[in-house]
Design a protein that fits this description.
The chain is α/β, with parallel strands linked by helices. The chain has nine helices and ten strands. It has helices at residues 12-18, 65-71, 104-121, 148-156, 166-176, 196-203, 217-220, 245-268, 282-292, and strands at 37-53, 75-83, 86-92, 125-131, 139-142, 182-187, 208-215, 226-231, 238-243, 272-277.
Length: 297
């Protein structure tokens, strides 16, 4: 079940800081309805951009009659078109996230909530997709600050479920959500099926992809030694091991290699990647690190 602490995902003081931020797309996307983001495409908003010569078939409403009176020539007013930005947050709610101190699942939910909130207050069209063995629920197309309580309640109520399958989740997302936009994937990426196939489904949609890789400090610096029975919380596999300093060092080396592999895979494909542990203060991650990665400003 969801952690009881998840009911306090964002405190009001921090939300006032988020009000000053906006999500950044490295591309300009055409939305289905007009929003508040300036597009380089010409349109019909109230912000004037330029003139061009009138041609037969142009909308007569946009003729500049003052110029016609002075120059006896027909010019059409051009305006900057405003477009909505589509923002999707795919966040891991598999059982491996129900771990750590500070709690990994709560940290990921805070991230998902903050990203959604920033988008909503900027009138972006925001969708949330918790996943475990696939997408387990969805909240689609919300915008505006008034939807904040409903959004926070949705994230808070997401249960932790056995098994993580990023590939299935990304495949389902790509099928359900053909529009281009920003996609933020938040996960520990502890998926026995791997992560590459899942991200390929997102890459195939030409999306602006951001990956936030979250681990607990107990996973990067295991505080265990001796004879142990290890239990896989997702598929219930059991292994008996003797944890020595040499084994801990080998584990840390393999973990670092795996995280580097995820980072390098993303870098080669134009995916923005950020690694964090849950002992990094949440506000510092949002206000500093995500700014440096170019996701918010």
């Amino acid at each position: 079940m969801a952690s009881t602490s998840d009911t306090t995902l964002l405190d009001p003081e921090f939300m006032t800081k988020l009000n000053r931020l906006e999500l950044i797309s490295r591309k300009i996307f055409a939305g289905k309805v007009r929003g508040e983001r300036r597009s380089k495409r010409r349109g019909e908003s109230v912000e004037f951009a330029d003139f061009r010569n009138y041609t037969v078939g142009d909308d007569l409403r946009f003729l500049d009659w003052n110029i016609y009176a002075r120059l006896d020539r027909l010019f059409l007013k051009l305006f900057l078109e405003e477009e909505d930005l589509l923002v999707s947050v795919i966040f891991d709610t598999s059982s491996s996230m129900d771990f750590g101190d500070p709690h990994k699942g709560h940290y990921a939910r805070q991230l998902a909530t903050a990203m959604a909130y920033i988008g909503m207050v900027n009138q972006d069209r925001v969708s949330l997709y918790p996943y475990a063995d696939g997408i387990v629920d969805e909240m689609k197309g919300v915008r505006g600050k008034r939807m904040t309580p409903r959004m926070i309640d949705f994230v808070s109520r997401c249960d932790y479920r056995p098994a993580s399958d990023l590939t299935a989740a990304c495949r389902q997302y790509a099928i359900r959500h053909p529009q281009r936009g920003i996609v933020i994937v938040i996960s520990d990426f502890l998926d026995k099926g791997g992560f590459e196939a899942g991200l390929k489904f997102l890459l195939g949609r030409d999306l602006d992809i951001y990956v936030i890789h979250v681990l607990a400090p107990q996973e990067t610096e295991p505080p265990v030694t001796g004879d142990l029975q290890l239990f896989d919380i997702e598929d219930e596999d059991i292994a008996e091991v003797t944890v020595s300093r040499a084994l801990i060092n080998r584990y840390k080396h393999n973990l670092e290699a795996y995280c580097s592999h995820v980072r390098d895979y993303c870098a080669r494909r134009g995916i923005a990647y950020l690694f964090t542990t849950t002992d990094v203060p949440f506000d510092q991650l949002i206000l500093n690190y995500l700014r440096r990665r170019g996701l918010v400003r």
